[in-house]
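stage 2 :: seqdesign
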């Protein structure tokens, strides 16, 4: 497949067309690229790959077979229509009437979240597009202390300033406390600032927490604020009749981020920003470049989607998603989601009362299961002592290092706030079985018993 890429780069692969050194270099690159790709695919298909990052899948060839941009209909008519059809279906699943609204695929969840902030600013202060931030009062964004860092990054990149991104307190399971949101909105208003935007997280990165969207929506309506739902990680649960209740109230959101390349297993990159109001994406981002977006073309120029985006050239991300949806069907996605959440519950039930384990929070909301493994040498120590915390902090990194060196399995770890390093088990691998969960537990205990 790599050979297919090089003709587009005008790099000769036939030895008599290039110097011996270039020919050797290209052969060297191709050999190691193919070896690396094979390792990534093998890793993605390994059931014991249980890392927080999604498993690589053997669909990489779709990238080399779609070396197109899709900023206008005439450049990529089939892919433009595929994207519009798929985005409409996603909006229907969210619950917006007849799938009305707008949307676009972006380079990832961070950019999709950035779009939501840009659109919110344009909705309430359209003059900022031409006159800059000086045309608006001091604008404030609100998001959970457990939310993805991309909201804070958007605040910095778009000129709000990271100090104008207010972090909201959460309960013990990582969900935003609505009363804290309202109190902080009132505090901002008292200072003379303008509360603009609230991000509700549906599937937080660490805990897999779902903020109470309905209660947050009530507050947003009360104070005339934009409500965005970051469903980058949790969006796949919308496909499950068993679990979509965790998104209760999502249809009240003004915008939603949904990353099929996460829980649904679509190859990177595949992220959508979905907007309830039709036309606002183009209003916010269009610059009407005359060499691309002529209004007098022979077809309906509403199919020219490029002016909605902050990019010009835009990779065809829809093809692999459309192919997978056609192959698996909505029921296939639902079965995958349900299986992964069942496995996370199986893991939680197996270790919550098992000697040597302590849970970070009670009951998984998503596939995130967070826990400490406590080696025998630490079990008799005072848990609040400095020595205990320092030693426990080193346990997860040491066990993961031994896992990586032995090549048996792969899981993630991290600290959170005042909590020392814990294992963060995230199940999205379609090949995983209960036996792989059993193996993981045995492996943690085998590697950690002498720490």
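stage 2 :: out
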């Amino acid at each position: 497949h790599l050979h297919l890429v090089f003709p587009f780069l005008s790099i000769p692969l036939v030895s008599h067309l290039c110097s011996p050194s270039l020919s050797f270099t290209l052969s060297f690159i191709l050999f190691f690229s193919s070896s690396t790709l094979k390792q990534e695919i093998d890793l993605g298909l390994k059931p014991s790959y249980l890392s927080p990052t999604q498993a690589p899948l053997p669909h990489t060839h779709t990238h080399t077979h779609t070396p197109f941009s899709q900023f206008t209909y005439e450049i990529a008519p089939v892919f433009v229509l595929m994207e519009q059809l798929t985005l409409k279906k996603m909006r229907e699943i969210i619950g917006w009437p007849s799938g009305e609204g707008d949307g676009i695929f972006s380079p990832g969840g961070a950019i999709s979240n950035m779009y939501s902030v840009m659109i919110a600013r344009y909705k309430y202060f359209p003059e900022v597009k031409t006159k800059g931030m000086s045309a608006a009062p001091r604008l404030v964004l609100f998001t959970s202390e457990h939310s993805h860092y991309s909201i804070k990054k958007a605040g910095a990149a778009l000129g709000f300033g990271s100090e104008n991104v207010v972090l909201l307190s959460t309960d013990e399971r990582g969900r935003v406390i609505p009363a804290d949101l309202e109190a902080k909105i009132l505090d901002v208003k008292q200072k003379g600032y303008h509360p603009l935007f609230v991000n509700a997280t549906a599937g937080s990165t660490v805990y897999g927490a779902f903020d109470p969207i309905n209660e947050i929506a009530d507050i947003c309506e009360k104070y005339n604020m934009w409500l965005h739902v970051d469903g980058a990680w949790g969006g796949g649960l919308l496909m499950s009749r068993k679990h979509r209740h965790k998104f209760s109230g999502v249809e009240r959101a003004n915008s939603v981020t949904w990353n099929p390349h996460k829980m649904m297993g679509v190859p990177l990159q595949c992220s959508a920003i979905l907007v309830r109001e039709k036309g606002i994406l183009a209003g916010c981002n269009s610059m009407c470049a005359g060499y691309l977006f002529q209004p007098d073309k022979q077809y309906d120029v509403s199919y020219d989607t490029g002016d909605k985006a902050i990019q010009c050239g835009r990779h065809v991300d829809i093809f692999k998603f459309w192919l997978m949806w056609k192959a698996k069907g909505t029921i296939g996605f639902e079965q995958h989601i349900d299986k992964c959440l069942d496995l996370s519950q199986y893991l939680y039930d197996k270790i919550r009362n098992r000697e040597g384990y302590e849970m970070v929070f009670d009951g998984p909301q998503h596939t995130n299961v967070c826990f400490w493994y406590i080696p025998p040498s630490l079990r008799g120590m005072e848990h609040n002592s400095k020595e205990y915390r320092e030693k426990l902090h080193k346990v997860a990194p040491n066990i993961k290092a031994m896992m990586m060196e032995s090549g048996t399995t792969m899981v993630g770890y991290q600290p959170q706030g005042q909590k020392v390093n814990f294992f963060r088990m995230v199940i999205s691998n379609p090949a995983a079985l209960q036996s792989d969960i059993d193996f993981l537990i045995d492996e943690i205990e085998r590697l950690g018993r002498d720490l």
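stage 3 :: structure notes
- Residues 149 and 236 are 20 Å apart (CA to CA).
- The two ends are 46 Å apart (CA to CA).
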